[in-house]
UniProtKB/TrEMBL annotation:
Keywords: DNA-binding, Transcription, Transcription regulation. This is GntR family transcriptional regulator. It comes from the Bacteria. Residues 11-79 form the HTH gntR-type domain. SMART domains: HTH_GNTR. Gene3D superfamilies: Winged helix-like DNA-binding domain superfamily/Winged helix DNA-binding domain. CDD domains: WHTH_GntR (cd07377). The keyword Chaperone does not apply.
Amino acid sequence: MLLTLDLNDPRPLHEQVTAAIRRAIAQGDVAPGDRLPPARDLADAMGVNANTVLRSLRDLRDEGLLEFRRGRGVSVLRRPDPREALRERARDLLDEAARYGLGPDEVVDLIKDMS
């Protein structure tokens, strides 16, 4: 499971980590029933503090995507709702567009031009 963070992303690190793990689950990099690597390994791979990863894992547990089991680690319970996954990616797109000075209407026009 390859997780990366955007250093230019203005969101707090724990939100970026949460989004990266959610995206990995949604894209099928990790399937329901699979165990995630230990938080320390995920933190090392992403270059963040282990507590940041643990906060993200708790957020995803609270969303019902992950399950914590004593002695067995963290497992994926289910994939996120596809609409929610797309909503997250659309939010990222709008954030990126804003960095370039584009508003939501301009992004919609760009998408319409592509179809």
